[in-house]
Write a structure and sequence with these properties.
- This protein is mainly beta and 412 residues long.
- The chain is 9% helix and 45% strand.
- The strands form seven sheets. A five-stranded antiparallel sheet has the order 1-2-29-28-27. Strands 3-4-5-6 form a four-stranded antiparallel sheet, with no helix packed on it.
- A hairpin with a 3-residue loop joins strand 24 and strand 25.
- The radius of gyration is 24 Å and the shape is globular.
- The two termini are 41 Å apart.
- The N terminus is likely disordered.
Length: 412
């Protein structure tokens, strides 16, 4: 190869890297999404050279070497020539990188797309609820002086929508408002709040709850659970009328979902025996709820696409959890994924089901599987951070982890 040809090759590589958000490929410690270079630099334990590609450091390009001109070999990545980046172990060539020049500085190319760190909190284990709309991602920080925060989908500076909330838990968003449950467990200080996304005074939709927990919303109502009192309730958006009880005497109702026709929730039960259940009731109420599944061991999250209901069951032992599915109205429940280690949260876009795990209290995975079943695919993982709540929109999947970080993967 002539030096002129080698120079042209180097220029083409440089242009390709620039088109991919600077061409920074992340080290194998990312494992598809566990950490990125930004959080590593902030001190989360990642290698300081995670943004350097080992093949670039070696300074040898095998394809240029084949041309016989060693003078053109310096600083060219073999991964760009072969389609496999040996330094990162995740990127499959420039064309596979979903990051662009418009991606945030916290973006990194991984095997399944563009991974972005959207926000990172000041303390671990505080981020809990998660929701997404057409413009922003929202999450709660659960403590005695908790907040509801937001960040644009494309990245940017997080903002606080509501400060000084007492132990906020889960959050749902509809239109111009967020709806969240808050209050310490025990007593009767639990509330359900309506908060304008543009800022302003909160409206208390329900109060006097023992343990305000799950929240879901449709165009007319907010649905919520009181975990300790065993109640599933609804209240009109805006709070024009008092809350009404849809179901009482439930065995620790936790997560809740709605498709605007029915309300679905999980009864955790004892959390150790196979006495949990998945329940359904019409949004207008009924004489009693319909059990969709029984004999569950600590069902922990729920989602619906209006055709089926999906939930995660933690199981009784390590790697005994499952991601489950049942038709709306009830049929025989079926597992979409078995042998899961502590599945935590679930979401669906009607095409795929997404879930997270928090394994052995120290590591986490984000998975997807088609709603009709198939082989689960690992979208992201971390050897040192457990994963929590997950949300999805038309383009991306979002999740939080136990270091208090909100992450996005595009495409999902």
């Amino acid at each position: 190869m002539t030096r002129a040809a080698a120079a042209r090759s180097l220029l083409l590589v440089a242009l390709a890297l620039a088109a991919c958000g600077g061409g920074s490929t992340k080290g194998a410690s990312d494992a598809g999404g566990g950490r990125d270079a930004t959080s590593d630099a902030a001190g989360d334990g990642g290698a300081s050279d995670a943004s350097h590609d080992s093949s670039l450091e070696a300074g040898v390009d095998a394809s240029l070497e084949a041309g016989g001109d060693s003078g053109a070999d310096s600083g060219v990545d073999t991964g760009l020539d072969s389609g496999t980046d040996s330094g990162a172990g995740t990127e499959t060539g420039v064309d596979a990188c979903a990051c662009t020049a418009a991606s945030p500085s916290t973006a990194s190319c991984v095997a399944n797309g563009c991974l972005v760190l959207l926000a990172e909190g000041p303390s671990a284990n505080d981020f809990l609820g998660l929701a997404v709309d057409t413009s922003d991602v929202y999450w709660t920080e659960r403590n005695a002086t908790g907040v509801l925060d937001a960040v644009p989908l494309g990245g940017g500076s997080p903002s606080t929508i509501a400060p000084s909330l007492s132990f906020p838990t889960n959050v749902a968003v509809h239109g111009a408002n967020a709806f969240l449950a808050a209050g310490p467990a025990g007593g009767t200080a639990g509330v359900v709040l309506q908060l304008p996304l543009a800022g302003g005074a909160a409206t208390t939709l329900a109060s006097g709850l023992v343990t305000a927990d799950g929240v879901a919303v449709d165009a007319a109502n907010v649905y919520f659970t009181d975990y300790t009192a065993g109640s599933v309730m609804k209240v009109a958006i805006g709070g024009a009328s008092a809350p009404t009880t849809l179901a009482s005497g439930q065995s620790f109702p936790h997560a809740v979902a709605t498709d605007g026709t029915n309300v679905y929730w999980v009864d955790v039960g004892s959390g150790t025996a196979a006495d949990g259940s998945v329940m359904q009731i019409a949004v207008g109420g009924a004489a009693s709820p319909t059990p969709l599944a029984t004999g569950q061991t600590h069902p922990n999250a729920i989602a619906t696409d209006g055709t089926s209901v999906y939930w995660v069951d933690e199981g009784s032992t390590t790697s005994n959890g499952a991601v489950m599915k049942v038709a709306v109205g009830g049929t025989t429940p079926a597992p979409l994924a078995a042998g899961q280690d502590n599945p935590v949260a679930v979401a669906t876009d009607g095409t795929n089901v997404y879930w997270t795990t928090f394994e052995a209290g120290v590591s986490g995975h984000l998975y997807e599987v088609p709603v009709g079943g198939g082989t689960p695919v690992t979208l992201a993982s971390s050897a040192s951070h457990g994963y929590g709540q997950v949300a999805v929109d038309g383009a991306s999947v979002y999740w939080i982890d136990d270091i208090g970080a909100v992450r996005r993967l595009t495409p999902k």
